[in-house]
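FAQ

Q: What does a record look like?
A: Structure on top, sequence underneath. For example:
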């Protein structure tokens, strides 16, 4: 009977599980029944009910301390919960699941080093005592069979530990480390995966396989039990990939889940969806949300100052963390507001919106980067743009290839437009040196940073009407073709060639024959080396397929070459 009740609880049938637990009348099982009833109440988010059940258990039972700790985690009292878990471990000795609970508390308190220490202990113990679980084999490329969802795997807490490690690496922006943590866990077939692992796989691999990621999140949403973050993450990803209708449909179909969402996230998503039909109404909604965020940020700023005056270091740390969390919620709202005017190319208004937020965001990297972009796009504020781009680049100067290629390109263009050619050349030499070094370490890897910088500079000259110099720069930037021809670089290059053809067709410019011959030669090289280089990626949820033969640089290079021959009558 108790096993039946436990099965119902695990399958999220809480009411039948509670009824089944009442049918267990054995005095020897009374303690187990109370614990099960507490777990059912806990899963139903009935925390007072769960607490009353836990308090009926023996106070000297280590499980009681553990269960009280779990309740404190739900109440977001992580430091107190951590003490409870440590107390339980002192009585029971080292237990992987208790160590995981402690790591989880440190994770919520953003004490990632302490969390990773506990995770490392769990993994080390699992590898030492159970080598048959094949930890890390998948990452090393060894083909291993599934270990299944055995009791041994459950007792090691390895799955939970690796999922938490992936979450920490993801928060620290170490996306490769996050993916590696997921492949390091004991191998299981896809149908054997738990909902948390499936959710994390979808998120961590979204950039490389978005279609599969969406499928996994949609599948999880249809299950009885899924991580509470699934709903919000799926909606955010729909919005990111501009599937606004799907986001609206999912919200309408799962109204019961919207009540469990962070109110700010719900309002943000609602405003994004409204923006597609009424940008003005969306801007008003974003403004209301932003005003509430700024009021909250001012209150927390005041609290930080008071704590510093009282020399309360713990309170200062807590308040600063609270401020950082509030700021991370405010930034997306601010960017969504700015994007409404960015899409209308009203860059002056975008700049005004950013200036209003300078009080809170002046140290935030995303804010500084977007301010730099909007100043750059106005074409008369290159000097001001340099003031924002330079600190971003200098921050990563020792590892300059970690900076986005477009940021480096825009900084070089800004230098050129303000007659600081030496600075532009120094930066390009630095990029070239790092690319050469990386080329020695990994000869097969394609690196496009310097190529994109030169392409953007070439595009600038083409846009200003100096096609001869601009096109020549574009052609030189693509050498050697075997290493520089890629989807992104071809995107920039073909725009310059199409601009050249358009201006030639309208008889607006004259270009020397030698330059036209160079153009034909370049397109022939692109045709030769571009057979396996795609021009675009199909949208993740699109039913339309892109013709494989037409989706290559070879195909587009032939078309452009044909147009150029036609226009020039060569």
């Amino acid at each position: 009977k108790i096993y039946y009740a436990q099965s119902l609880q695990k399958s999220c049938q809480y009411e039948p599980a509670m009824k089944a637990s009442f049918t267990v009348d054995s005095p020897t099982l009374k303690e187990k029944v109370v614990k099960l009833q507490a777990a059912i109440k806990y899963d139903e988010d009935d925390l007072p009910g769960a607490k009353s059940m836990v308090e009926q258990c023996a106070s000297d039972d280590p499980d009681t301390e553990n269960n009280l700790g779990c309740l404190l985690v739900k109440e977001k009292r992580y430091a107190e919960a951590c003490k409870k878990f440590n107390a339980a471990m002192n009585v029971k000795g080292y237990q992987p699941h208790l160590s995981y609970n402690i790591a989880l508390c440190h994770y919520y308190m953003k004490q990632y080093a302490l969390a990773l220490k506990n995770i490392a202990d769990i993994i080390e113990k699992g590898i030492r005592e159970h080598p048959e679980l094949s930890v890390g084999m998948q990452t090393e490329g060894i083909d291993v069979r599934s270990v299944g969802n055995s009791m041994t795997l459950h007792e090691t807490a390895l799955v939970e530990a690796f999922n938490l490690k992936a979450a920490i690496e993801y928060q620290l922006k170490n996306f490769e480390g996050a993916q590696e943590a997921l492949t390091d866990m004991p191998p299981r077939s896809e149908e054997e995966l738990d909902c948390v692992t499936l959710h994390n796989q979808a998120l961590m691999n979204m950039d490389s396989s978005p279609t599969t990621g969406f499928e996994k999140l949609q599948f999880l949403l249809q299950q009885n039990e899924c991580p509470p973050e699934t709903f919000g993450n799926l909606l955010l990803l729909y919005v990111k990939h501009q599937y606004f209708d799907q986001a609206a449909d999912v919200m309408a179909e799962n109204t019961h889940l919207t009540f469990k969402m962070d109110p700010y996230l719900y309002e943000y998503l609602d405003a994004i969806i409204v923006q597609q039909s009424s940008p003005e109404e969306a801007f008003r909604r974003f403004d209301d949300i932003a005003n509430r965020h700024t009021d909250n940020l001012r209150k927390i700023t005041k609290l930080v100052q008071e704590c510093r005056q009282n020399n309360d270091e713990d309170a200062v740390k807590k308040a600063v963390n609270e401020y950082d969390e509030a700021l991370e919620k405010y930034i997306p709202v601010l960017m969504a507001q700015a994007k409404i005017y960015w899409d209308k190319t009203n860059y002056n208004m975008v700049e005004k919106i950013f200036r209003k937020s300078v009080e809170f965001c002046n140290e935030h990297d995303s804010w500084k980067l977007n301010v730099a972009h909007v100043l750059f796009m106005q074409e008369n504020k290159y000097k001001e743009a340099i003031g924002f781009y330079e600190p971003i680049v200098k921050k990563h100067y020792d590892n300059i290839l970690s900076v986005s290629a477009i940021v480096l390109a825009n900084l070089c263009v800004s230098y050129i437009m303000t007659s600081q050619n030496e600075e532009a050349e120094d930066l390009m030499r630095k990029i070239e040196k790092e690319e050469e070094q990386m080329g020695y370490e990994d000869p097969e890897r394609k690196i496009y940073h310097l190529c994109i910088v030169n392409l953007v500079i070439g595009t600038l000259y083409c846009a200003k009407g100096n096609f001869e110099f601009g096109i020549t720069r574009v052609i030189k930037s693509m050498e050697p073709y075997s290493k520089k021809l890629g989807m992104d670089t071809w995107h920039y290059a073909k725009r310059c060639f199409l601009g050249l053809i358009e201006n030639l067709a309208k008889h607006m410019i004259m270009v020397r024959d030698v330059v036209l011959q160079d153009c034909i030669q370049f397109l022939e090289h692109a045709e030769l080396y571009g057979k396996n280089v795609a021009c675009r990626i199909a949208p993740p949820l699109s039913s339309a397929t892109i013709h494989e033969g037409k989706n290559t640089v070879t195909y587009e290079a032939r078309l452009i070459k044909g147009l150029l021959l036609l226009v020039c009558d060569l």
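Q: Is there anything notable about this one?
A: The CA atoms of residues 52 and 209 lie 46 Å apart.
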